[in-house]
Amino acid sequence: MLLALMLLPLLAEGQSVFQFHPQRRNSVRMPFQLERNLVVVPVQLNGRGPYYFMLDTGADASIITDPTLRETLGLRIGQQYMVAGVGEEAPLTAFQTDGVKVELGDGKVVAPNMSMLLLSADVFNLSSYVGLPVHGILGSDVFRNFVVEIQPENRTITFTRPEKFRRPWGRRWARLPITIEGSKAYVETKVTLLDSVEVPLRLVLDTGAGHALSLETGSDARIKLPPQRLRTLLGRGLSGEIHGYLGRVSGLYLGQYRVKFPITSFPDEQSVRARVGVPRNGNLGFELLKRFHVVIDYPHNQLLLRPNSLYRDPFEHDMCGIDLLATGGNYRRYIIKRVEAGSPAAAANLQLDDEIISINLVPANTMSLTQIGRLLHSADGRQLFLLVRRTDGEMVVARIKLKRQI
Among 82, 258, 327, 392, which one is least packed by beta carbons within 10 Å? Predict the structure, then answer.
């Protein structure tokens, strides 16, 4: 999933910084949920909650995506903005809301008087995409004040005071310099394309992107679409749906590590280039970053990576050909919102708005959206038996033979 927000310098003026409470603390560790390659953390707003926010280095500002929180929290509405990001639609109306007290880690990390954006509509629909309630996005505000260590294996985040941080040493740690422009972090690296052409890259470090790698063909003439590719919906940004292609590159270099054949998004140029303020070639997402113990260190301009047990997991795309949205009070009803033409799902006559009741006799409501996604990505040739309910109530059994498409 692609998420992006254009720089809003006026919003940043007078922005409250995050700090430890009490201030004598040097570090705080807290759990997070990793769902569909997105980092989701519990947050208290104005002493109420928990609410759930996605942690996103790719977002310039912190955003409340759920407009119903305006009334729930009694938020004051200030200046109106037209905000734009990646996508094919017109900008969206949003409002500045000041004086929001934001707390993480059971109140140990606090921004006492924060300015945030309040969207006029929940265009991301993150809750249905992730499969749990998501109320907003915490952007670069968090990363400016701390060294942030993310351990995907044990689902913990550690915030450390920059002056107390001690860089880990050892041959397995890769260090990549980062530059901060506006509110985004950029990594310089290189990619080997399938024709063996090696291209230097400037990538946005983007924990809010669920994909592994995204490359923008209009940013460099050498970046071309791979011969084997899949035309598809890549995700949604602030300015609407993002279409493009999925394919693979031969390898991406991260320090001494060469990540082989990652699935790569190639968004349509018109969806991206008009919204880009700082030159770049694409972004580095969490499907790739989750394979490392990650230290994001804005204060010292560095990204530190050490491979974890996920490092050698293959990169796979959906082998079924459906997009699912989670609905219902607990987000455990799964509705098919798109069926890929020519896919195994289409061959099995799955239809738009079918509800998945069970997979291989296991009730779907006992599984998370992430767990179902793993099944649909699992193995070329694997057979799945789905029980689905049609919109007219008819129950249908569908036999799916998964097929690797890229």
Answer: 392
Token look-up 């995700």 returns: 235
Quote the CA–CA distance of 171 and 255 in Å, as a whole number.
11
Query: What string of DSSP letters covers 211-230?
Result: SSEEE-GGG-TT----SS-E
pLDDT in tens, 200-225: 999 999 999 999 999 999 999 999 99
Identify the H or E element spanning 11: helix 9-12
pTM: 0.91
The model's pLDDT over 161-170, given as tens digits with 9 standing for 90+, comes to 999 999 999 9
Rounded to 10 degrees, what is the CA torsion of 74, 78, 84, 88?
60
- Beta-carbon-side half-sphere exposure of residue 95 (alpha carbons within 13 Å): 13
Tokens matching residue 204: 């946005």
What is the percent of the chain with per-residue pLDDT over 90, rounded to a whole number?
Answer: 80
Backbone angles phi, psi at 232, to 5 degrees: -160, 170
Strands (E) in 108-146, as ranges, are 109-119, 136-138
Q: Which of 151, 148, 135 is nearest to 102 (CA)?
A: 135
**Residue indicated by tokens 């409340």:** 64
Give the whole-number percent of the chain exceeding pLDDT 70.
91
* Residues β-bridged to residue 363: 358
Using an 8 Å Cβ cutoff, are 117 and 95 in contact? yes
Q: Using CB atoms within 10 A of its CB, is residue 175 exposed (0-12), middle (13-18) or buried (19+)? A: middle
Q: Determine the Cα–Cα distance for residues 109 and 159; give it in Å rounded to an integer.
A: 8
Mean pLDDT estimate for the chain: 90
Helix (H, G, I), strand (E, B) or coil at 253: strand
